[in-house]
Amino acid sequence: MRPGFGYYARAMARPIQIVPSVLPADFARLGEEVQALEKAGVDRIQWDVMDGVFVPNLTFGPDVIAAARNHVDVPFEAHLMVVEPERLMHLYAEAGCQMLIVHAESTTHLHRTLAQVRELGAQPAVALNPATPASAVAHVLDLVDMVLVMTVNPGFGGQAYIPTMEAKVREVKAMIDAGGHDVDIEVDGGISAATIEGAAAAGANVLISGSALYKYEQGLEYGVTDLRGRAEAAIG
Ligand code: DX5
């Protein structure tokens, strides 16, 4: 008997990845904090790089990330919330970030910048602010390994999830599937036990959590397991 569509859909479902933001971590103990995240079973660690211009906040330079790099083996991704990322993205690759996420709104020549990320030997990803339409990535899906659909306006952790972004996740997923691209979809902002199922059901398979993960009273390992289980249940 031929398996039903559901079998193929599940068979094609991209693995769920739980990726913490270190924004809520104790910056005075970042080496220990990334070790705790690795022990908790995260798939990657996201560094929210902010320049105070693209977003109204200032966070990590490459030296801070480099200082944490040798404390763990888990891959790092740099979420470059900066203007003109092409000027400094090589520094984050050299600091040990395997993936570099460039905002579509942050560079005049997005196509060239993403190709340059690949030339640096890093995995390129492109991010969309809430007001930016999915169509902004239509002509770069062949250059990236991941599309990040922001589910908050970038700049700060602990903000409320924007549920209307689920429609954009579905739109991006349809574009990826229609083009036969091997591309993950990440969501970032307000991801918690209450929101992760909607995001995963919409098509996101890489889920960033910062404040909600750190708020689990049972600890990081429990939180990673709980979030992963909820996302996997949502995609059946
Ligand atoms: C926004 C940041 C946050 C952070 C996660 O610029 O990118 O989205 O990573 O924040 P939480 O999970 O606390 O909403």
Principal-axes shape call: globular
Major beta sheet summary: 8 strands, parallel
Count helical runs: 9
CATH class, please? Alpha Beta
Secondary-structure-derived class = alpha/beta
Low-confidence regions: none
Q: Give, in spatial order, the strands making up the sheet with the most strands.
A: 1-8-7-6-5-4-3-2
CATH topology: TIM Barrel
Alpha-carbon Rg, integer: 17 Å
Tell me the count of domains: 1
Number of strands: 8
Distance between the termini: 21 Å
Helical content band: 25-40%
Order of helices and strands: HEHEHEHEHEEHEHEHH
CATH superfamily: Aldolase class I
Return the average pLDDT rounded to an integer: 95
Compounds present? D-xylitol-5-phosphate
Q: What fraction of residues sit in β-strands?
A: 15-25%
Helix-strand blueprint:
Blueprint: H1 5-12, E1 17-20, H2 30-39, E2 45-50, H3 62-69, E3 76-81, H4 89-94, E4 99-103, H5 110-119, E5 123-128, E6 146-150, H6 165-179, E7 184-188, H7 196-202, E8 206-209, H8 211-214, H9 220-234
Parallel strand pairs: 1-8, 2-3, 3-4, 4-5, 5-6, 6-7, 7-8
Helix pairs in contact: 7-9
The structure holds D-xylitol-5-phosphate.
D-xylitol-5-phosphate binds next to strand 3, strand 8 and helix 8.
